[in-house]
């Protein structure tokens, strides 16, 4: 009897692997101080979005929207095709840092890069722009949502002390 229950549980878990699939894109500090940092998470048929409050740096408004699950599927295919290898994370002047976090079939991958044609090819840029465009969807405001916060809470370095 235990073997039957274990087998049924194993089938149920393996069939629901895609339930854990998610894509998270976060942005860091832009060279344009009027441009807020943001985070986008796509999980099954739900999109979560946070945007920094410009006049209150480090604080965010949070939003949620129901989306077609095909969006996650299409983006998953694009990411798996275009981001097979990690992107070289080299600092590029005037480029905004981004982090792309993916979890597909319980395989977690994290890629930090600068959004620039110097570090991304045109197909990678297209995938990232497609994700960013999702923030234009109609959303409802929510209390909060947890995002990877490395870039969302990053502070500018202290300026050097003046020399005497």
Structure description:
This protein has a 7-stranded antiparallel β-sheet with strand order 6-5-1-2-3-4-7, covered by helices on one side. It has helices at 2-15, 69-82, 122-133; strands at 22-27, 38-43, 46-52, 60-66, 97-104, 107-114, 140-142. By secondary structure, the chain is of the alpha+beta class. The chain has 3 helices and 7 strands, in the order αββββαββαβ. Strand 5 (97-104) and strand 6 (107-114) form a beta hairpin.
Give the SSE string: HEEEEHEEHE
Determine the number of helices (DSSP H or I, runs of at least 4 residues).
3
Strand content: 25-35%
Give helix % range: 10-25%
Class by SSE composition: alpha+beta
First-residue to last-residue Cα separation: 81 Å
The dominant shape is: globular
Strand order of the largest sheet: 6-5-1-2-3-4-7
Q: In angstroms, what is the radius of gyration?
A: 19 Å
Nearest-integer average pLDDT? 83
* Regions with little confidence, pLDDT below 50 for 5+ residues: 1-17
DSSP E strands, number:
7
Largest sheet: 7 strands, antiparallel
Which features characterize this protein?
disordered N terminus; alpha+beta; 24% helix; 164 residues; 3 helices
List the helices and strands and how they pair.
Elements: H1 2-15, E1 22-27, E2 38-43, E3 46-52, E4 60-66, H2 69-82, E5 97-104, E6 107-114, H3 122-133, E7 140-142
Antiparallel strand pairs: 1-2, 1-5, 2-3, 3-4, 4-7, 5-6
Helix pairs in contact: 2-3
In short:
The chain has 164 residues and is of the alpha+beta class. It has helices spanning 2-15, 69-82, 122-133, and strands spanning 22-27, 38-43, 46-52, 60-66, 97-104, 107-114, 140-142. The model is unreliable at 1-17 (pLDDT under 50).
């Amino acid at each position: 009897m235990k073997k039957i229950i274990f087998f049924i549980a194993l089938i149920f878990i393996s069939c629901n692997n895609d339930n854990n699939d998610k894509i998270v894109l976060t942005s860091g500090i832009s060279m344009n101080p009027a441009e807020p940092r943001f985070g986008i998470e796509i999980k099954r048929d739900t999109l979560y979005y946070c945007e920094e409050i410009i006049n209150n740096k480090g604080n965010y408004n949070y939003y949620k929207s129901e989306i077609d699950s095909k969006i996650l599927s299409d983006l998953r295919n694009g990411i798996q095709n275009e981001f097979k290898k990690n992107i070289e994370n080299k600092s590029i002047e005037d480029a905004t840092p981004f982090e792309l976090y993916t979890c597909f079939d319980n395989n977690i991958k994290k890629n930090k890069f600068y959004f620039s044609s110097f570090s991304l090819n045109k197909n990678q840029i297209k995938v990232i722009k497609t994700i960013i465009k999702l923030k234009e969807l109609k959303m409802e405001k929510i209390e909060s949502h947890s995002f990877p916060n490395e870039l969302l809470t990053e502070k500018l370095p202290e300026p050097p002390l003046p020399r005497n």
